[in-house]
Write a structure and sequence with these properties.
single chain, mainly beta, 6-stranded antiparallel beta sheet, 5-stranded antiparallel beta sheet, 20 strands
């Protein structure tokens, strides 16, 4: 009886072994035999150096790293760069109403790394704010006659592991002689992280309007009245109260940015290759790529054979000189 059961199981064992062997993946037989560089123009008519890579063998999947910035195999697991600067910029304009005290400094710029994000008296007034107005050479309103751009590096204000908030604070002193005030406009507020590879926007007014916190009396508390200060993605406009009952009292508003989380280094994530062949594609004997700048590039081809259970790959590198 035992012999009978063994004979029945034997074909199943053979089938399992065959299936197991079928899942084994051979290493790709793939190589890059060389390249040629030719003068050419791209689809937009721009002159380029067209490189034709000659390949031998085959693989299920082939990926290509050009060796250009952000496309280097050496950074396939991630690219970390030091932060060179944290650049804050914005445009401003001021319109002074007739009768406004020309010595009023109604607009200031603040920064905080311990604001808790709560637009309440406890949250805003309880935070420690550093005045950074002077960094932007913000003039007196009476000296502003055109829309002006300004910028400054604020990287020294960032505390590792803590969010950094930027605020514009607008305040109107008590008015007993005239109801006049100054309108301040802020446009195109942006904070960007600068590295050796360029600029990466972290916060932008165009991506989200400033939330507002009012202090003192507010005309909008009176039925039928709207907020005087208006925050949109196109413009942040500060205006004072105009109701007679509110004129003798100091009042204002904070416009506070979204939090900035900035470390000493910028994590740009992994460099990405271009997929030039998939399993269903025919054998690839050549691949063409256009370079726009001269230099020496470390080009990398990654060839893989894959199944649902296993993958084997070979990596082929070569230095490409673009004159």
């Amino acid at each position: 009886m035992k012999t009978k059961y063994f004979l029945l199981l034997w074909p199943c064992l053979l089938l399992l072994v065959a299936c197991s062997k079928g899942l084994e993946v051979d290493s790709p037989s793939f190589s890059v035999s060389g390249y040629t560089v030719n003068e050419a123009v791209d689809s937009a008519g721009n002159p380029v150096k067209q490189v034709v890579f000659n390949m031998e063998g085959n693989a299920d999947v082939i990926s290509f790293f050009s060796g250009e910035i952000l496309h280097e195999y050496a950074h396939k697991d991630g690219r970390i760069l030091p932060t060179d600067a944290l650049n804050m910029s914005f445009d401003y304009f001021a319109g002074m109403g007739a009768g406004t005290n020309p010595d009023w400094k109604q607009l200031s710029v603040k920064a905080s790394s311990n604001f808790n994000g709560s637009l309440t008296t406890e949250g805003v007034e309880g935070a420690v704010w550093t005045d950074i107005t002077d960094r932007f050479s913000l003039p007196m309103a009476k000296d502003v006659d055109v829309r002006t751009s300004t910028s400054a590096d604020i990287s020294d204000l960032a505390v590792d592991g803590q969010p950094l908030y930027i605020a514009f604070r607008y305040v109107t002193p008590p008015r007993t002689v005239s109801a006049a005030y100054t309108t301040w406009d802020v446009f195109e507020f942006t904070v960007s992280q600068e590295t050796a590879l360029g600029s990466t926007p972290l916060v932008s007014q165009r991506e989200g309007a400033f939330p507002l916190y009012y202090f003192g009396p507010n005309d909008a508390d009176t039925p039928g009245r709207a907020d005087r200060t208006v925050s949109t993605t196109a413009r942040l406009r500060f205006r004072a109260n105009i109701l007679a009952a509110n004129l003798p009292l100091e009042a204002g508003v904070w416009a506070i940015s979204a939090p900035l989380v900035v470390g000493a280094d910028a994590d740009l994530g992994p460099d990405r290759p271009v997929s030039i062949k998939n399993r269903i594609d025919p054998v690839l004997s050549a691949y063409t790529y256009n370079y726009t700048k001269p230099g020496t590039y470390k080009v990398t081809f990654v060839a893989s054979n894959v199944t649902t259970a296993e993958e084997t790959k070979v990596v082929k590198e070569l230095d490409v000189i673009i004159p």
